TrEMBL record:
This protein's record includes keyword Cytoplasm: no
One Pfam family of this chain: Radical_SAM
Record's protein name: TIGR01212 family radical SAM protein
Keywords of this entry: 4Fe-4S, Iron, Iron-sulfur, Metal-binding, S-adenosyl-L-methionine
A Gene Ontology molecular function term of the record: 4 iron, 4 sulfur cluster binding
PROSITE patterns in the cross-refs: RADICAL_SAM (PS51918)
Domain Radical SAM core: 15-260
Record InterPro entries: ELP3, Elp3/MiaA/NifB-like_rSAM, Radical_SAM_C, rSAM, rSAM_horseshoe, rSAM_sf, YhcC-like
The keyword Ribonucleoprotein appears for this protein: no
Cofactor(s) annotated in UniProt: [4Fe-4S] cluster
């Protein structure tokens, strides 16, 4: 049977031998869509508390955070090597000299073999990409863009502060410098049809993207989306795991086979969720996905 998708491990094994783990670090950055530079209040679904691991404390230096992460992961696999994952908020939103200091501090830490930098597509300059392009000649560098949707109507509705053309430009400018490109998409954003969600697989496949992260829409407490949901819940369709798995199977059938999928779900802590969560880890969802894919092939 043909493989359902290229895994993130498949992708990493093209670049490294041995086990690689990402360690999230928090530089205490802000976000231009929160501080008024681009917008105020942020994306309507955003509650950054939901994606910062507990060990990730901006009061510690980047090196200290990485050492803590290494202690956490290294017990089980002493030979493990790591990628520093600049995850929370927009990790390119600072003067270049400040960013360089943080990135290079990470690379000085023993067993850190590369960087993964999460950011917004409207938050990268040519100057920064030139620097990351040079850096990627000596270590692994990936920029992970929050694209979230390929539909401008949706991007406006969720107050992203950029359009899809902006994502396309950032992805192309990044890949042109031989920097790896990751893309984050949310499936199930309000007002989006199933067809529009699936079309995104074609849009992304046409771009020089290496890795995609998908996740189901979750509505978090204290967000603007929570209010939107309370006012007009009929605009939202919150998937069951089975339904979402069926959508993802179709998405994968359309996605270019060379693009790896790093994850399919995100499970925010239950106390942050405004609606009922699935209580499923990504690997548990993958079991459902494989079963649904097999059923759809009649095997
Ligand atoms: S760009 Fe990221 S950090 Fe900024 S408001 Fe949107 S989701 Fe939150």
């Amino acid at each position: 049977m043909q493989k359902l998708y290229k895994t993130y491990s498949d992708f990493l094994s093209e670049h490294f031998s041995g086990k690689i783990q990402k360690i999230a670090v928090n530089m205490g950055m802000s976000c231009p869509n929160r501080d008024g530079t681009i917008g105020k209040g942020g994306c309507t679904y955003c509650n950054n508390l939901s994606f910062v691991p507990e060990y990730c404390r901006p009061d510690l230096t980047v090196a200290e955070q990485l050492e803590q992460g290494k202690l956490f992961f290294g017990r089980k696999y002493p030979q493990m090597r790591y990628l520093a994952y600049f995850q929370a908020y927009s990790n390119t939103y600072a003067p270049l000299e400040v960013l360089k200091k943080h990135y290079e501090e990470a690379l000085m830490v023993d067993k850190i073999v590369g960087l993964v930098i999460a950011t917004r597509p409207d938050c990268v300059s040519e100057e920064l990409l030139d620097y990351l392009g040079e850096l990627s000649q000596r270590c692994f560098v990936m920029v992970e863009y929050g694209v979230e949707s390929c539909t401008d109507r949706t991007l406006k509705r969720i107050n992203r502060g950029h359009d899809f053309a902006c994502s396309v430009k950032a992805i192309k400018c990044t890949a042109k410098r031989k920097i790896h490109v990751g893309v984050h998409l949310i499936l199930g954003l309000p007002g989006e049809s199933r067809k529009e969600m699936l079309n995104q697989a074609d849009e992304i496949s046409a771009l020089p993207v290496d890795v995609v992260k998908l996740h189901q829409l979750q509505i978090l407490k204290g967000t603007r989306m929570e209010k939107d949901y309370q006012e007009s819940s009929s605009d939202f369709h919150l998937f069951s795991p089975e339904e979402y798995a069926r959508l993802v199977v179709e998405f994968l059938q359309k996605l270019r086979s060379g693009i790896a999928v790093e994850r399919f779900t995100n499970q925010s802590p239950p106390h942050l969720l405004a609606t009922e969560g699935w209580g499923l880890k990504n690997h548990e969802f993958v079991h459902i996905l494989i079963r649904v894919a097999n059923e759809s092939q009649g095997s």
